[in-house]
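Retro notes, structure queue

What went well: the backlog is down to a handful. What didn't: a couple of records were mislabeled last round, so from now on we paste the full input next to the output in the thread. Example, using Periplasmic nitrate reductase, electron transfer subunit from Aliishimia ponticola:
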Amino acid sequence: MKLLAILGVSAFASTVALVGLSVAQQAANVQTLRNTNIDGLNIVDDVYQQQEGREARNYRQQPPIVPHSLDQYQIDLRTNQCLTCHDWSNAGDRGAPTLSMSHYLDRDGTQLDTVAGTRWFCNQCHVPQADAPALVGNTFQPSSSR
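Corresponding output:
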């Protein structure tokens, strides 16, 4: 009985090894997405700078695009540095646009004095604008142009 089990396990192991070798040989034909070999130097394009001014919105209720970098902004469960300028209590002094009142409504529509938890992570909807080439083709037309 033990001999039968040992033969079965060894047959299974050899089959797995052969399949593994076959898959490894086929993987040698995989093309890289980096345009260079894995051990080669990967040349990265220049970083695109932020545009001056505000971008026009393309549709109703489109979240505004942020006209500055967010690289050094901390947004986590305890801290949201966007609110140091954009909260209604600070925006006037800082010359920054105020958050929409919808950011102060909870799920039930109750008006809050602080930003609702569902609107806390600004970069879920708002992204920094950049003069960067499109990654994919786009034929989108704003609704007002139809």
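Agreed that this is the format going forward. Reviewer comment attached to the example: Residues 60-133 form a domain with the Flavocytochrome C3; Chain A, domain 2 fold (CATH 1.10.1130.10).
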